[in-house]
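INFO batch 0412 | record 1 of 1 | parsing
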Amino acid sequence: MTDRSELEKRMLSGQPFTYGELSRQFAPGQGARGPDASRIVDHTIQRLRRKGLIAFTREGGKVMWRATEAKP
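INFO prediction complete | emitting tokens
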């Protein structure tokens, strides 16, 4: 199972990221782990977005996520 704290640290590090990039990094081989592993990245993005800790911008055809100035 993916370490959620490492995933959150990456999302809040200040470096921009895409959903696909994090999925490849934190949920490789997700089919072998079941549907929960394939959704961890999405659930974490949405949880942090609702808290106002990350926000997205569109850059060309990509959706880029970044940490906001809000404090966790």
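INFO post-check: DSSP finds four helices and two strands in the chain.
INFO record closed
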